[in-house]
Amino acid sequence: MTDGVGAFVISGPTAVGKGTVVTALKARYPNVRVSVSVTTRPPRPGEVDGVHYWFVDDAEFDELIAGGNLLEWAMVHGTHRYGTPRRAVLESLAAGHPTILEIDLQGARQVRRSMPEAYQVFLAPPSWDELVRRLRGRGTEDEEQMATRLRTARQELAAAAEFDKVVPNITVEQAIAELVDLIGL
User: Fold this and answer.
1) b vs e for 107-121, b when ≥16 Cβ sit within 10 Å of the residue's Cβ?
2) Cα 4 from Cα 15, distance rounded (Å)
3) What angle do CA 140, 42, 10 make, to 5 degrees?
4) Strands (E), 37-160
């Protein structure tokens, strides 16, 4: 349990429901800020630039890295880069908002080094079979992409003990309740 102000890393394997849980938490607690990541991947249907992600090309991403403007960044699934803009997180924290960084394992490890005071939460699936079902149910990846994501998910699941707390995402409601207690909302 924390005092309700600070940086909170929410990480976990692909398709565990990070985005769903974080979006629902933010909707219920408007004081919570969610860092908008920058990415080199193209938008999925319905995603809006500056709302879901900041979509940039490789050259722009390289400039962000060179300028020290990312709190963390990583190549994800061997295809696209994602990063957390440093300035937005620091401004949110300075304004007194609990700030969530919804990021992958590589990014969480970098944040552990660059911002050790951030509380790290690993969102875990109820089972491997359920994780596979959720990934297939998204319908956003072909078979090859799913195989890559599932290989990565096995590695990510093995790292759960690195986090301050593991929260199973059995249901969105249960996961939110645990996060509310942890964050101190």
Assistant:
1) bbbbbbeebeebbbb
2) 27
3) 70
4) 38-39, 54-55, 70-76, 80-85, 99-102, 119-124
In the chain, the amino acid numbered 92 is S
Label residue 87 left, alpha or beta by phi (over 0 means left) and psi (-120 to 50 means alpha). alpha
- Give the number of C-alpha atoms closer than 13 A to the C-alpha of residue 117, restricted to the C-beta side: 9
What pLDDT does 141 receive? 76
Domain borders along the chain are 7-183
Whole-structure pTM value: 0.84
pLDDT band at 15 (very low <50, low <70, confident <90, very high): confident
Q: Rounded to whole angstroms, how far apart are CA atoms 90 and 170?
A: 32
State the fold for domain 7-183: Rossmann fold (3.40.50)
Q: Are 15 and 103 in contact (CB under 8 A)?
A: no
